[in-house]
Amino acid sequence: MPVITTIADLKRLHKRRTPKMFYDYAESGSWTEQTFRENTSDFDKIRLRQRVAVDMTNRTTKSKMVGEDVAMPVALAPVGLTGMQCADGEIKAARAAEKFGVPFTLSTMSICSIEDVAEHTTKPFWFQVYTLKDDDFMRRLLDRARDAGCSAIVITLDLQIMGQRHKDLKNGLSAPPKLTVASVADMTTKVRWGLGMLGTKRRFFGNIVGHAHGVKDPSSLGTWTADAFDHALDWKRVAQLMEMWGGKVILKGILDVEDAKMAARLGADAIIVSNHGGRQLDGALSSIRMLSAIVDAVGDKVEVHMDSGIRSGQDVLKALAMGAKGTYIGRAFVNGLGAMGEAGVTKALDVIHKELDTTMALCGRRDVTTLDRDVLLVPKGFEGEWD
Hints:
Blueprint: H1 7-17, H2 20-26, H3 34-44, E1 47-48, E2 63-65, E3 68-70, E4 74-76, H4 82-85, H5 89-100, E5 105-106, H6 114-119, E6 126-130, H7 135-147, E7 152-156, H8 166-171, H9 181-188, H10 191-198, H11 221-228, H12 235-245, E8 248-254, H13 257-266, E9 270-273, H14 287-298, E10 303-306, H15 313-321, E11 326-329, H16 331-362, E12 376-377
Parallel strand pairs: 4-11, 5-6, 6-7, 7-8, 8-9, 9-10, 10-11
Antiparallel strand pairs: 1-12, 2-3
């Protein structure tokens, strides 16, 4: 058994143990992947202030996200096709998150359904929804989330139109995936993955197949998916979806100050500064570069979270010190899942928690809620001066 000390260790195992089609889906961005790369590399530009002779006993990483107690301010982000990285992947990730004490967010485009995850967990989880045109489907989807006890929904705002991800097109990744001689040959070499998939009945989009009109089996899913996303999405539509839910709402995909102000005016419980992990608008700024400006713009009007680019506990600390009240990991937990299943997700959370706790201590802080920009060394012009 390899010694796992970093998310990069899990990533190497993930690549070795999961079919290329699904690994590439998780580890890719759109177009040139500039934003995908800078989401992580921009974190490296921020340095830390080491402080000494500070009492470091009784440290705590406990906090709250949208009023819910968390063991550390890190949630598992919604990731589509998680159940293809590892059999029953969403269930395994949700169980690991629950045991660790952090939120799990289920994607609408998950393999395991809302009901599957609810059946295998004991605490409320969050549910991510896209802005789809079909009101009847949306109402039934939200009713199902309500019946499953979901405590918040995360509305994704930046996927009206799908960004082009070259690797997915070349690998035949679609809904359902297009199997080629090369992809099937690759799958046969992933024995552990294949045995897991043979042992589960959950291989297709459990929230869609059998629930959306005209989608009775996987073969009809592609047509529905191509027509489902609402290209006419505007803030009025967002307000309608919020009213349709009637509970806690987190708006995901905010990367602009004006959009953040609008989200705050709508009464969102939180916003997520996010560029969809670099998978939508290539050439957009990284989330960490935009974070401070958005925090400054909305003040205390709405809770600000951040995702895209977090691969370590040090990244979490930097985001919190720049003003975020919560963070999300997507690829980091998927790397763990693809590498070692539920135990891998737990390991990813352990790695990030240890890095966060140790770094916090060496920066002279013992309470994660007290982190601020004073623990950082941010290069001049980091946020940029743009015309």
